[in-house]
Design a protein that fits this description.
Layout (H helix, E strand, L loop, with lengths): L12 E4 L2 E5 L5 E7 L2 E7 L31 E3 L2 H13 L3 H19 L4 H25 L2 E7 L1 H20 L2 E7 L7 E6 L2 E3 L4 E3 L3 E6 L2 E5 L3 E5 L4 E5 L4 E6 L16 E6 L5 E6 L2 H14 L1
Parallel strand pairs: 3-6, 6-10
Antiparallel strand pairs: 1-2, 3-4, 4-5, 7-8, 7-17, 9-11, 11-12, 12-13, 13-14, 15-16, 16-17
Amino acid sequence: MALVRFRRIAAFGNHTNGVVTQATLGPHRAAVHVARGGPLYRASAQARGAPPRATPSSRARRGTSRPAPRPEPPAMHDSSADALLRALNRAYKRRPVLGIVLGAILALALVEGLALGAGVAATVLFGSLALVAVVIVGRREVEHYSEAVEYVLDDHVTHAYRRLVAGFNRLRAAGPVWHLGRRTADGGRRRRRRLIVPQLALPPRVRCNIRVPALRAGRQTLYFFPDRLLVYEPQMAWGVAYRDLKVKAGDVRDVAELGIGSADGANGFLALASDSGLSALFRCADAKSANEVAAALEALA
């Protein structure tokens, strides 16, 4: 079973030791090279919506039948983690206006057609085609305004990140996982808990050459990218560097101050916190897999 899958997104790209070293993901593109010394951020210098440039040597001459010119990958310039986070927030907060407007126009046309006495068959046909058009336009709009992020990992980071994904897979395969919220009103001896489904996923409106471990924590969703942890809330996204992440894991029977008991045979726990406001506590069936996830997160710091 593959622990990490580095997918090739588009026509451009090559692989070195199983890791994508270049991939053209679209006009809104960022690249993150994560090495032992820390991440290096790059961003596309190509203007949004600008057509890709063709290489001079591959341009077809007039009157000759040559293959279409292959566009060059967009030029990249130095960027930063904050700039990438701002771009992710812009994509996250943008609403699919075009699909909504098109849906409203087609709905009005459908009502007008019924008022003018359109037949049932014609109305059903028009409604079906309108629904398909709205779905296609909405998806295209979301895809266009999504941020494309390409990760390139050196051997050391690749090994550490594969450890994280392997531990995460064992955590979710071992049994149920719960997010533990605030303490209940009965003296604070228990915590409210919610069953969650750990998965390899991506945040909304983000395209990437890898899928990352994701955990739901109440109104937040935690995405464990190779360079840092991204916390998505209903209104915004923010990040926590792994060096600033406080991780604790083990057997709940050995940590009485957590106040979560040891019922149901689920004795493992994983606690994540940061000075920037992150505080998430999870309970799982296997303490060993929780310890593996914690050790892998510390190795990424």
